[in-house]
Automatic annotation (TrEMBL):
<dbReference type="GO" id="GO:0003886">
    <property type="term" value="F:DNA (cytosine-5-)-methyltransferase activity"/>
</dbReference>
<dbReference type="Pfam" id="PF00145">
    <property type="entry name" value="DNA_methylase"/>
</dbReference>
<dbReference type="InterPro" id="IPR018117">
    <property type="entry name" value="C5_DNA_meth_AS"/>
</dbReference>
<keyword id="KW-0949">S-adenosyl-L-methionine</keyword>
<keyword id="KW-0680">Restriction system</keyword>
<dbReference type="InterPro" id="IPR029063">
    <property type="entry name" value="SAM-dependent_MTases_sf"/>
</dbReference>
<dbReference type="GO" id="GO:0009307">
    <property type="term" value="P:DNA restriction-modification system"/>
</dbReference>
<keyword id="KW-0489">Methyltransferase</keyword>
<protein>
    <submittedName>
        <fullName>Uncharacterized protein</fullName>
    </submittedName>
</protein>
<dbReference type="InterPro" id="IPR001525">
    <property type="entry name" value="C5_MeTfrase"/>
</dbReference>
<dbReference type="GO" id="GO:0032259">
    <property type="term" value="P:methylation"/>
</dbReference>
<keyword id="KW-0808">Transferase</keyword>
Amino acid sequence: MSQLVLSVFPGIDLFGRGFEAEGFCVVRGPDIIYGGDIRTFHPARGRFDGIIGGPPCPDFSRAQRGEPTGYGLEMLAEYRRCVIEADPVWWLMENVSGVPDMIIDGYSHQRIDINASECGLHQNRLRHFQFGHRDGLILTVDRQPPIQDVEPCCVASEGAQLGRRDWLRFCQLQGLPEGIDLPSFTLSARYRAVGNGVPVDMARMLARGILNLRSPEDVRVCECGCGREVEGRARLATVACRKRVSRRRVTVPA
């Protein structure tokens, strides 16, 4: 039976496209680019198996040059509210590495980093995901060996840059091999919409992982929460994992 998923902050929803490609049924919530406002949206309780979404991230991005506006924390709080109101079995949130931990009462918590080059895409794009499950099931992801011959990360501002990659190539790097037709968008808005999205192949990898969630009794994973399996006495999977656990993370205020 297909799982029903609510996609919040969808944009043009490359995230949801990946889940649809793996057999999920995706319902899309409101988004600002279509005139919607998450703050007035209230999902039905008990109807969704899962919630996915990537709240706006500029306040937490390393590319942010000014002071945080507070909008990022406000949108994280809206994501949390939607999870609490909908009461799904699981939730999955995408963002940048600097985003605070999303801890929600009644759910486990994992923090997973994935590069697009580990998903079969020729792009160096690192994204961070946080996952929670009501019964504590564990999300593991079947990463591929990283592609070495990669192009720079697709960024939302590329459409306004000189020397930008052509539209089809930009889409292909985001997991849209045939491109996407967005006739009502300006050129820069098209690049921004696709550049802001989760690469489709990355979303598909995560969707497959959710279809194959593991019990904590059946698998040992890295203590940093990255979803990598460990063996023997190992507690952490990589050097990056050791660095991650050594840093103190801020938690999104309840």
